[in-house]
Amino acid sequence: MKKFMLFVLVVAFTLSVFAGGGILGVTENLEADKEYKIAVILKTLANDFWVEMKNGIEDEAARLGIKVDIYAVSNEGDIQGQLSLMETILNRGYDGLAVAPITPTNLIPGIVRATKMGIPVVNLDESVDRDSLYRAGGALAGFVNTNNFNVGKQAAEFVAEKINGRGQVAVIEGMAGNKSGEDRKNGFIEGIKPFSSIELVSSQPANWDRMMAVNVATNMIQRYPNLKAIYCANDTMALGAVQAVANANKLGKIIVVGTDGVSEAIQSVQAGRLSATIAQDPYNIGVAGLRMVVFALNALDGEVPSKLVK
C-alpha cells in the first residue's frame, strides 16, 4: 500500500445558554428528559460526507432513546427545495430541529418560523448568516461546524511543500455564495501568500459536482500547461479533477487535493491518484448537533428560547 497523506481537523462547536445551562450538558453524560421527536435536514445523501453525518445522528438517537427523522434534498443545488422541505417539516409536530443549509441564507425564513413556534434549531456544518437571521427575528440553539478557513490553509501548506514553493496552482470552488466553500478558498489563498513563487492562476466554482469539476479542471489544464496543483473545496470535485488530470496524462505532474476525507477519496489517495484530502469528522458533527438539540429541549422544558445566538 502506498504511503498517503490525510489531514484530520478538530471539530469546533459552541452552544447558546438556556435557562442557566452550559456546554457541559452537551459533552458529558447527556440524557433526554423526554422521548423527543426531532427532525434533521441535511444538504443531500448523495455524498458520503452527509451519509456519515446521518450515521452519527442515528447512532446517537438510538443511545438517547429519541425519535429522529432525517431529510435531505436530491442535490446540493436545490436551494428552494430545501426551504420547501423545511416548511413542510415544521407542520409535522417536531420538538426540535437541526439543519445544514445549502447557503447561509436559504433556510432563514424557516428558522424564523421555527423560532416563533418555540422550536429550537441547531445549525450543522454550513453556517447560517447569523446577523441576517437575528435581524429577521430568528434564533439558533447552537451550531456545529469545522473551521473551513483552516481547512483551506492546511491544503495550501501541503501543496506548497509538494511543489517546493513554486509554480502555478488553481482552486475549484464549491457553489458561489456558499460560506464553507468561500472560507476554504480564502484559507487556501491566505496559505499560499508567504510563497512568492506560487501563482494562483484560476479559481472557479464547480457547484460541488463531480462532472462539472471534470470540465472545469480540463479547461484549467488546457489553459495553463504548466499547472502544478489543483485544490478542490470538496472530495466529490477533487475526484472529478483527478479524472481530468488522468485524461490529460498528467497524473504525478499535477497534484490534486480534496476536502472531507470521504471513503472514495481516501481510496484514491491510497491508489496514488488523489494527493491528499483534508479530513473532517461528519459522524461526530452529527452526534454533537443532535446532543445540542436535546440539551436545548431539556433546558427549555417547553419555554420559548429567550436568547439569540450571534
Structure overview:
It is a single chain. The protein folds into two domains: 11-145 and 283-300, 3-Layer(aba) Sandwich (Rossmann fold), CATH 3.40.50.2300; 148-279, Response regulator (Rossmann fold). The chain is 43% helix and 22% strand. It is built from eleven helices and twelve strands. Strand 5 (96-99), helix 4 and strand 6 form a beta-alpha-beta unit. Helix 2 packs across helix 11, helix 6 runs parallel beside helix 7 (179-192) and helix 8 packs across helix 9 (235-247). The longest helix has 19 residues, at 282-300. The radius of gyration is 20 Å and the shape is elongated. Residues 1-25 and 304-310 have low confidence and may be disordered.
- CATH architecture descriptor name of the largest domain: 3-Layer(aba) Sandwich
Biggest β-sheet: strands ordered side by side in the sheet: 1-12-11-10-8-9
Largest sheet: 6 strands, parallel
Number of helices: 11
CATH topology of the largest domain: Rossmann fold
Regarding CATH, which class of the largest domain?
Answer: Alpha Beta
Q: Report the β-strand fraction as a percent range.
A: 15-25%
Number of strands: 12
The CATH homologous superfamily of the largest domain corresponds to Response regulator
Give the SSE string.
Answer: EEHEHEHEHEHEHEHEHEHEHEH
Low-confidence stretches: 1-25, 304-310
What's the rounded overall pLDDT mean? 88
Structural class: alpha/beta
From the spread of the alpha carbons, the general shape counts as: elongated
Distance between the termini: 47 Å
| Overall radius of gyration | 20 Å
Any idea how many domains? 2
What fraction, in percent, of the residue positions are helical? 40-55%
